[in-house]
């Protein structure tokens, strides 16, 4: 068996360095960028992690070594949404051209068409995609709730009543002899017993008629009817 010093003399010891170090005693820092690992004009930086490096790629290149060419507007890189158009800029960044009704860097925001308050007469604006609609208050109509509804167009007042249009309502001014919200009720004038001296009252539409007892005449039959001239004293 050979003595131990024989091995130390003929086979001196050496260090097995960890990644990023070299030299007899592993004291020399390896610059990983010296080997120019980054391609296509990329810039190489040593990583904070020993033995590693980072490639900063020029426009239109990607990958660990910037070895893959790509377009920022191709899948899966295209960031533009909502059917917008992607344009690749000279610096390699995408620019999104939005469809009408959308905005934002990537056309991700639905434009609020209600921000200009287009609905009139306190109508409620409901935003859509490149559109809006107005939910009108009672009594108004139209795309922008700009028209007041004329409730008198349907002629709601009966028996020759006059219709007065108001906002979301109407009133009826009734002809003599009628009442009710629509002038639909005939006043029974006979209820007040207008016929005098035992005359009979017949209610008519918008009025009444008295049938006088014998010997009386007049509208309400208060005048006696004589067979000859009356001579007063």
Descriptive report:
Residues 29-67, 69-108, 110-146, 148-184, 186-223 form the EGF-like domain. The protein is rod-shaped and about 155 Å long. Residues 221-233 have low confidence and may be disordered. With 233 residues, it is mainly β. It folds into 5 domains: 21-69, Laminin (Ribbon), CATH 2.10.25.10; 72-111, Ribbon (Laminin); 113-149, Ribbon (Laminin); 151-185, Laminin (Ribbon), CATH 2.10.25; 189-224, Ribbon (Laminin), CATH 2.10.25.10. It has a two-stranded antiparallel sheet with strand order 1-2. It has a two-stranded antiparallel ribbon with strand order 3-4. Strands 5-6 form a two-stranded antiparallel sheet. The protein is built from 1 helix and 22 strands. The relative contact order is 0.05. It starts with a helix and ends in a 9-residue tail after the last strand.
């Amino acid at each position: 068996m050979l003595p131990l010093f024989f091995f130390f003399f003929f086979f001196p010891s050496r260090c097995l360095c960890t990644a990023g170090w070299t030299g007899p005693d592993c004291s020399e820092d390896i610059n990983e960028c010296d080997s120019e690992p980054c391609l296509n004009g990329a810039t190489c930086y040593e990583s904070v992690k020993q033995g590693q490096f980072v490639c900063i790629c020029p426009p239109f290149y990607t990958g660990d070594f910037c070895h893959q060419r790509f377009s920022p507007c191709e899948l899966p890189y295209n960031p533009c949404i909502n059917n917008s158009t992607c344009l690749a800029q000279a610096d390699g960044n995408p620019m999104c051209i939005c469809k009408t009704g959308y905005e934002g860097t990537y056309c991700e925001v639905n434009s609020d068409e209600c921000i200009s308050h287009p609905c009139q007469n306190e109508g409620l604006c409901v935003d859509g995609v490149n559109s809006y609609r107005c939910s009108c208050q009672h009594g108004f109509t139209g795309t922008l709730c700009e028209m007041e509804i004329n409730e008198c167009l349907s002629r709601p007042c009966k028996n020759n009543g006059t219709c007065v249009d108001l906002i979301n309502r109407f009133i009826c001014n009734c002809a003599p002899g009628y009442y009710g919200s629509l002038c639909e009720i005939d006043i029974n004038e006979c209820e007040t017993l207008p016929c005098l001296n035992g005359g009979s009252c017949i209610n008519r539409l918008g009025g009444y008629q008295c049938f006088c007892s014998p010997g009386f005449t007049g509208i309400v039959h208060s005048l006696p009817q004589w067979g000859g001239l009356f001579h007063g004293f």
